[in-house]
């Protein structure tokens, strides 16, 4: 891979659904915080030359406690919402390509990063995803069904997601909507092509306490 990329790991969320009055990214699994599993994969990837960890201002020291001494790692402060945190990282990223990942997905594989970077040569953005196992229905504000998606064409989107930094930064600056839940939406709304790359169902995000048990089972703990 000719172009080196910047990995952006997001751990500045509020963990509101985790219901343990703590940032889930600091939950220990086998004596290692959840976000460190993702960090280790990025550190070992030959195509990543820079890593930016986005965290809350008052959690900086806690993050540093778990970091190895590596000049590739930078820390920046998160914003009010996910998109603000991503934008803060984009402003200090030095590479032309960025790979964005949720720190709460500890079972990321090296191949996810490499496959995203490979496909980015042909598309405007790439994301890991898996086909939905369930039928997905769209509802209105009253929870009345308005549409049923075709299961064969419905994907559950994960991270990492990969983009050209300048394009993504420009789209962040143009968009002020609070409804952006992932960076692919910015490209989709602007008419750019986003490629979904098959991941697998182990790449879950820790959202509730029950997810910890699932992660431990996948790790054989």
**Regarding quaternary structure, how should these chains be classified?**
single chain
**What's the CATH first level of the domain at 5-122 and 160-178 and 206-218?**
Alpha Beta
- Order of the strands making up the biggest sheet: 5-4-1-6-10-7-11
Number of helices: 7
User: What is the helical fraction, as a range of percent?
Assistant: 25-40%
What is the N-to-C succession of helices and strands?
Answer: EEEHEHEHEHEEEEHHEH
Key structural traits:
two-stranded antiparallel ribbon, globular, alpha/beta, seven-stranded mixed sheet, Spore Coat Polysaccharide Biosynthesis Protein SpsA, Chain A, 7 helices, single chain
Structure notes:
There is one protein chain. With 221 residues, the chain is of the alpha/beta class. The chain has a domain at 5-122 and 160-178 and 206-218: Spore Coat Polysaccharide Biosynthesis Protein SpsA, Chain A (Alpha-Beta Complex), CATH 3.90.550.10. It is built from seven helices and eleven strands. It has helices at 34-44, 60-65, 82-92, 110-119, 165-174, 184-189, 209-218, and strands spanning 5-10, 28-29, 32-33, 48-55, 73-77, 97-102, 125-131, 137-139, 145-148, 155-164, 194-198. A seven-stranded mixed β-sheet has the order 5-4-1-6-10-7-11, sandwiched between helices. A two-stranded antiparallel ribbon has the order 2-3. Strands 8-9 form a two-stranded antiparallel ribbon. A hairpin with a 2-residue loop joins strand 2 and strand 3. Helix 3 (82-92) crosses helix 5 (165-174). The mean pLDDT is 92.
């Amino acid at each position: 891979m000719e172009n080196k990329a910047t990995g952006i790991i997001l751990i500045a969320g509020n963990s509101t659904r985790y219901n343990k009055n703590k940032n889930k990214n600091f939950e220990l699994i086998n004596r290692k915080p959840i976000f460190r599993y993702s960090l280790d994969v990025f550190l070992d990837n030959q195509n990543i030359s820079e890593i930016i960890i986005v965290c809350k201002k008052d959690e900086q020291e806690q993050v540093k406690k778990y970091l190895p001494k590596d000049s590739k790692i930078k820390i920046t402060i998160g914003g009010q919402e996910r998109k603000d945190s991503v934008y803060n990282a984009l402003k200090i990223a030095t590479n032309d390509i960025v790979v964005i990942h949720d720190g709460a997905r500890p079972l990321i594989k090296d191949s996810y990063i490499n496959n995203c970077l490979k496909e980015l040569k042909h598309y405007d953005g790439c994301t890991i995803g898996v086909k939905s196992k369930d039928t997905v229905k769209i509802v209105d504000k009253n929870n009345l069904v308005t549409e049923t998606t075709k299961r064969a064409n419905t994907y559950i989107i994960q991270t990492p997601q990969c983009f050209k930094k300048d394009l993504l930064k420009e789209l962040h600056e143009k968009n002020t909507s609070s409804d952006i839940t992932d960076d692919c939406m910015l490209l989709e709304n602007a008419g750019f092509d986003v490629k979904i790359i098959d991941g697998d169902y182990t790449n879950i995000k820790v959202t509730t306490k029950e997810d910890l048990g699932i992660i431990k089972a996948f790790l054989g703990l």
